[in-house]
UniProtKB/TrEMBL annotation:
Annotated organism of origin: Dichanthelium oligosanthes
Domain of life: Eukaryota
Pfam family of the protein (one): HPAT
Signal peptide (residue range): 1-21
UniProt keyword Glycosyltransferase present: yes
Annotated Hydroxyproline O-arabinosyltransferase-like domain residues: 19-190, 317-572
TM regions (residue ranges): 693-715
InterPro entries, A to Z: HPAT-like, HPAT/SRGT1-like
Name of the protein in its database record: Hydroxyproline O-arabinosyltransferase-like domain-containing protein
Principal location: membrane
Alphabetically ordered keywords of this record: Glycosyltransferase, Membrane, Signal, Transferase, Transmembrane, Transmembrane helix
Molecular functions (GO terms): glycosyltransferase activity
Compartment(s) of residence: Membrane
GO (cellular component) term, any one: membrane
């Protein structure tokens, strides 16, 4: 009701704004162009709803619930725009076949509006100047004065840029008209005179009326509801009369509230004022919600994925969301490697949420096919730091900026390893019925949290992780997913663990609730499968063939364990041959408990898959093959000089794999364990050097001794010869 009142007051204010040109209607497209160019709001919205001032809003107008899509705005039907079918369209648009007879209410994507707005204005000017074709038989304008040129400007401008509207004839009604059975219009457009019994109203009679500024003056009151009950026996016609009196009563209520806010004295009591403040009136004007059938240019048919005429499978596209960080990079390497091995049909896209500053230094552009998304980790409006909101924001951004022919979208998290195909035909996904996996800890679906944040709490389902959704459902759902995430995140009064199930009570799982509440809001009913995804460390269901490992929690086998959070600041992607601690050999798992054995084997498979992905990544990067001794020496020197960045893990050394494991140097206990292994390494080197020294010394001594012996031998021989010669000489003289 508040929205309707606000709409009523705005209508009056705008109606009284003086026209400054001979054709005031042109102010509408001109105002839109000006808003797009100068308003900060235009830079922070994805969807725009455009109304006329002479309208009463009876309930929320949500574009995705109406079926609006990028390239396909939603609009009401204006059947009298016959110029779409004759020479007028042929003269003023290059695509007369795209001319849609629409107006009244417009719900369109901001990108479409930016493309359309300048043409809307220029085409309006063009049609307005074409006086030779103002006649009623060409334009449908009963006055033949070119008054509806702006309406044709819109239709011709939209045709020019190729917009095809989702057209509906039920969402808006003129008071005095009879609605179709079962339809609750959301807009009352009082642009034409209407009456109920002897009472009547025409906005033209109040063109110069200063009723907004005259304290406590209202429009003539219409008949009371009980009087209308006796006027008409046909229930449908009677509904039309009730809509007429609701329209003027809402206008009058808006005036009362406006006068009170302007400081007017309290109005004198009357039967009519008493009615406007009564419970009966409040009940009659409760917000209405759209339940009408969407109308598209082509009929949408709900179908199971396999029900194709030629039995072909629908196209699939897989999405996962990440950020510009080494933490998400190694997860991307793991998921992409498993995607290639899984045989998953279709393509995959990484939704990379980054700030401009992050992108300047980012090194992982080649890790996956990527769609770049502005980061919302720091909310642009609230300043709240909540990186998880990047997931719905990125999906919405992708939908709004990428053309896809996929019929089903598979949404995964980055911290997943695929083990097989995830397809709609395997699990029965269809329009209106996505497939997902159970998240039992979302207890907010059963308590006050759901009652606060969705109109349909009974439809709230505890799901997440893996999602298979029809593209049409995703287009209706994505924006609401983002908005509900923001809404739950802002609801700090209900962060408590006993309400949300969040063990940290920090609002961290707001995005998960955003998903469930948004799905409930548009009545998506999930097919919940327990055999798609498993957390390593959990006992598997008997016979389940899981398609996804979700390593979001710590898991381990024996003395070995893995927790992704321990590797948040470690760059294993850009450090050659870096990897995680090797899990145990499956052959060593000898447990008699078969459940525990299966659990441990799955955990080992997940750990090995991550390391295999990293190994192949380093190989593709042409990392040099390093000598084992050189690698150990390098690491030892780093530890000794207190410049440790990555250190070797004990498990890899024990297996002589020669490929050093990297972990965060800040983890002091691990550093101490690594440092404790340094002295034996140095001792072995000293022993090696000592052995070589002894060998050299022995050889040197041997050579010296040999040379001494030879020298002594030849010296003694020379002396003997010399004595012999002296002896012979003496004998000769004697």
């Amino acid at each position: 009701m508040a929205a309707a009142i606000a709409g009523a007051v705005a209508a009056l204010l705008l109606l009284l704004y003086p026209a400054w040109a001979s054709y005031p209607a042109i102010n509408k497209p001109a105002g839109v162009v000006h808003w797009l160019k100068h308003s900060p709001e235009a830079d922070n919205v994805d969807w725009v709803v455009i109304l006329d001032a002479d309208q009463i809003v009876r309930g929320p107008i949500i574009p995705w619930e109406l079926g609006a899509e990028k390239g396909k705005p939603f609009a009401a039907y204006y059947g009298y725009l016959k110029g779409c079918d004759n020479i007028l369209a042929q003269l003023h648009t290059a695509h007369p076949e795209f001319c849609d007879k629409v107006g009244g209410i417009l719900a369109m994507h901001i990108d479409d509006l930016r493309a359309l707005a300048p043409l809307w204005l220029s085409k309006t000017e063009e049609v307005r100047q074409d006086k030779s074709h103002w006649s009623t038989n060409i334009t449908g304008d009963i006055y033949g004065m070119g008054w509806i040129s702006e309406m044709y400007g819109y239709s011709f401008g939209a045709a020019e840029v190729g917009l095809r509207h989702k057209i509906n004839d039920d969402i808006m009604i003129y008071p005095g008209y009879t609605p179709r059975p079962g339809i609750e219009p959301l807009i009352l457009h009082y642009g034409l005179p209407f009456k109920v019994g002897n009472w009547s109203f025409s906005k033209l009679e109040h063109h110069e009326d200063g009723i907004v500024y005259d304290c406590n003056r209202l429009f003539p009151p219409p008949p009371f509801p009980r009087e209308v009950e006796m006027m008409e026996s046909d229930p449908n016609v009677k509904r039309g009369l009730f809509l007429s009196i609701e329209c003027i009563n809402t206008l009058n209520e808006g005036l009362l509230l406006h006068h009170a806010s302007a400081g007017c004295p309290k109005a004198q009591w009357s039967k009519y004022l008493s009615f406007l403040k009564s419970r009966r009136f409040s009940e009659l004007t409760m917000p209405k919600y759209w339940k009408g059938q969407k109308v598209d240019s082509t009929m949408t048919v709900q179908y199971v994925a396999l029900s194709k005429a030629n039995n072909e499978y629908p196209k699939i596209h897989t999405l996962f969301s990440t950020e510009c960080s080494s933490y998400f990079d190694w997860q991307t390497v793991g998921l992409m490697h498993s995607f290639r091995l899984s045989g998953q049909p279709g393509n995959i896209t990484r939704l990379l949420s980054c700030t401009d500053e992050d992108l300047k230094n980012y090194k992982g552009h080649d890790l996956a096919p990527t769609h770049y998304v502005p980061s919302m980790s720091r909310h642009p409006w609230t300043g709240d730091w909540y990186p998880a909101i990047n997931k719905p924001a990125a999906v919405l951004h992708w939908l709004n900026h990428v053309q896809t022919d996929a019929e089903f979208i598979v949404i995964l998290d980055a911290d997943m390893i695929m083990r097989g195909t995830i397809t709609p035909w395997d699990y029965g996904a269809k329009l209106g019925h996505p497939v997902s996996t159970p998240y039992e800890y979302l207890i907010g679906c059963d308590n006050i949290l759901a009652k606060i944040h969705t109109r349909n709490p009974s439809a709230c389902e505890k799901v997440g992780g893996v999602i298979i959704m029809h593209i049409d459902d995703l287009r209706r759902f994505a924006l609401l997913w983002l908005h509900k995430s923001e809404e739950v995140r802002a609801d700090k009064a209900h962060y408590a663990t006993n309400i949300t199930g969040d063990i940290y009570a920090s609002g961290w799982i707001s995005e998960m609730y955003g998903y469930s509440f948004a799905a409930a809001e548009i009545n998506l009913r999930h097919i919940i499968r327990r055999d798609i995804m498993i957390y390593p460390g959990y006992v598997p269901l008997p016979g389940a063939k899981y398609k996804v490992f979700h390593y979001g929690l710590r898991f381990g086998v024996g003395n070995w364990s893995f927790d992704k959070a321990d590797w948040r600041n470690t760059d294993v992607v850009n450090t050659c041959w870096a990897k995680f601690p090797e899990p145990p050999d499956p052959a060593t798992i000898m447990q008699e408990d078969l459940d525990a054995r299966e659990r441990d084997l799955l955990s080992i498979e997940c750990g090995r898959a991550l390391n295999k992905a990293l190994f192949l990544h380093h190989k593709r990067r042409n990392c040099p093959r390093l000598d084992i001794t050189h690698s150990i020496s390098k690491k030892t020197d780093q530890v000794s000089s207190n410049k440790i960045e990555r250190i070797a893990h004990e498990s890899s050394r024990s297996r002589n794999r020669g490929k050093l494991e990297s972990i965060d140097a800040a983890r002091e206990k691990t550093v101490e364990r690594a440092a404790a292994t340094i002295p034996p390494v140095h001792r072995s080197r000293r022993l090696a050097r000592s052995s070589r020294m002894w060998i050299i010394a022995v050889w040197a001594v041997s050579i010296v001794v040999f040379l001494l012996v030879i020298s002594m031998y030849f010296t003694d021989r020379r002396r003997s010869v010399s004595r012999s010669r002296v002896s012979r000489s003496l004998k000769a003289h004697v």
